Amino acid sequence: MSKSDRPTETLTDRLFATERQPEDFRFDAAVARVFPDMIRRSVPGYTTIIPMIEVITEQYAQAGSNCYDLGCSLGASTLAMRHGIPFGDCTLVGIDNSAAMIERCEHYIALDDHSLPVSLRCENIQDTELSDASVTTLNFTLQFVPPEERSALLSRIAKATRPGGVLILSEKIRFESEDEQDTQTRLHHEFKRANGYSDLEISQKRSAIEQVLIPETLSAHTQRLKESGFDRVLVWYQCFNFVSMLAIKAD
């Protein structure tokens, strides 16, 4: 294995830096290699959300429960949950349908100096078994699930969640107002430019991802979460068109 292909090597995202044939975005090996750089430079607030997942997990994890990171990618939120769980008898499970992501995630987990075991599964989150959960994370994952399958997934999560348990849901959203949508999109693109992305990279990435990442309004998310079985929904973080919500199951 070459130095530049080591699973824990942080590479600069240049995937869309040159002209390429249009194709839908995929979480393949090429994306997995540059994913830490890609998400840091593309998602405003990501470096704040990850450590706060640790804080939230510490507050809501329950002894003897299961904790899930659905769509764990390289395990950033999985590791945050691992360090937040205060009980040694909890089970932590990371799930992703990308074999390339899971392979690299295994190496990050192995390098982490923590005793709580982590179980990784390479499977679709819509199919994975969920039970006795106190904390579940969907960190920029639901937006890649087909809209017609989202309610069923959230209902399964809510049903599997213990009283007093939570779902941490981070998403790119769209806005009711066209003016606000245009403003927030422009600010997001300026964020990317400030992080070194060219106009070509921004344009090509947007074209690749717009058919697979389907954002919804905050009100749509809130309504669905409550209809799925969660009792309270609050926004604990927002930057431009990216938010993170906390859906709470009543005691």
How would the blueprint of this fold be written?
Elements: H1 29-42, H2 46-60, E1 66-70, H3 76-84, E2 91-96, H4 99-111, E3 118-122, E4 133-139, H5 147-160, E5 161-172, H6 178-194, H7 199-209, H8 218-228, E6 232-239, E7 242-248
Parallel strand pairs: 1-2, 1-4, 2-3, 4-5
Antiparallel strand pairs: 5-7, 6-7
Helix pairs in contact: 2-3, 5-8
What does this structure look like?
With 251 residues, the protein is an alpha/beta fold. It has a domain of 165 residues: Vaccinia Virus protein VP39 (Rossmann fold, 3-Layer(aba) Sandwich), CATH 3.40.50. A seven-stranded mixed beta sheet has the order 3-2-1-4-5-7-6. Helix 2 runs parallel beside helix 3 and helix 5 packs across helix 8. The protein is globular. The N terminus is likely disordered.
Oligomer: single chain
CA-based gyration radius: 18 Å
Number of helices: 8
Instruction: Give the averaged pLDDT, no decimals.
Output: 94
Q: What is the CATH topology descriptor of the domain at 46-174 and 213-248?
A: Rossmann fold
Helices and strands, in order, run as: HHEHEHEEHEHHHEE
User: Largest sheet, described in full?
Assistant: 7 strands, mixed
Strand content: 15-25%
